[in-house]
Amino acid sequence: MPRLTVSLRSIPPALLIALVGLPVLMAIWAGVTAGGGATWDHILQNRLGPYSLTTIWVLILAGLLMLVIAVPAAWLVSLFEFPGRSLFSWALILPLAMPGYVMAYAWADLLGVAGPLLSWVREVTGWAARDYWL
Amino acid sequence: MTLRTPLFAGLSLLVGAVAACSNPTETTDAPEAAAPVPTLTLYSSRHYDSDKALFAMFEEQEGVKLDVREAKAEQLIETMKAEGDQSPADVIITADAGSLWRFQEAGLTQVLESEALSAAVPEKYRSADGAWYGLARRLRGIAYDPSRWSPEDLPTWDTLAAEDKAGEICVRSSSNIYNLSLMGEIIHRYGSEAAQAWATSIVGNMARNPQGGDTDQIRAIAAGECSLAIVNHYYWVRLGASSTEADQQVAASTAFLVPEFTAGSGSHVNITGAAVASTADDPALAETFMTFLLSETGQTYLTTETKELPLLDTTALPEGVEAVPEFTASDVNLGVYGENQAEAQRLFDLAGWN
Known about the structure:
- Chain A folds into two domains: about 10-95, no CATH class; about 100-135, no CATH class.
- Helix content of chain A is about 70%, strand content about 0%.
- Chain A has helices at about 10-35, 35-80, 85-90, 100-110, 115-125.
- Chain B is built from 14 helices and ten strands.
- In chain B, helix 2 links the parallel strand 1 and strand 2.
- The chains are: A mainly alpha, B alpha/beta.
């Protein structure tokens, strides 16, 4: 049976984790203790429903995309040998190293109506933004 | 085993650094202590090189050191709250009267009764009790596609809510302070019911869900996704003054107008302003600084890069702003933007303006 002991060498990393985590804990604490009032009532009555639905919708969508893209990709690089397999096996992990909101902004810039992709489409085709569906 | 040593070393370095930071008195026995230079700590939500040049002039002129800390207004508020009595902040500069009000409401400002400032700043552009003073003006108006609309189609904000504008409006989200302040004046003038009805009609006229900032709305007009956008004047002016050809084209294919609320009501004006922080230990120095910002030099430097309108009529308009049409300012005191802020957000939410 493994023994649960606190070794000396686990103290420095624990301190570091505490140092990094402190602002997050403070923010949660401030949110919990400073709530209430008319604004909170309004959020509860009018906004919490839509916010929660959006969150659930994002969860479902992200889950589906993961099943369609991430799982097959992981399966392919794990079980098959093909040229470039070793490259993909680490390149596919790279997006995890990027903060989600940075990627979201980058995608929004790239695919937005005034972004490079759709601007190029309009330039080539002569369409205006409402002449096509994208 | 080999990993442990660097970790310990790293941690003790960190601890050492923290200890050094919290112990500034150690350096007082330097050979010759220089005469203390008064320091003014400025919390600013603006990020412009022209501001830096202006601040350097003030340092030179007054023999003062300016310690400038830049962050978004919300971050500055939370920082000051967390710092409490220990906050080094002396002066706060932020855009939008609604944002100044947030500082005031959080108890982070102090009243400054100043004859010089009161003489320079019209009454409507400062808080009634002297908690903040305007430094520059900004207009929230309508950017439009001139091939679709003319200013005669949009003399008032009401006409933007009319049915013939269905599917034509681009605007950013309702939680943005510029929208909240505009709504704040509408509530003040016409009451909550009419304001909510207006917002509901605007939502019905939107070309797309609110997204992006003001500049993105103007670009969307140029791209053809909508033909009307609610934006601040300087975003449009800056596109025209941009060194990028694509931006200049966006500005050239759009136009800007300044609607009234009803005929003769005057137009919605907002400000960038300053307040003396509650923790300022030398309010007189803060006043000197704010007075400097309202001098001709201060006004010029504050607006040249931002393309805001100077608060003083005597200061020349920044290049490019002459393209903004003439307007008559509303007489409403900007304090109402803050007072109606929570109600504005509530009504936006009820109207479905995300």
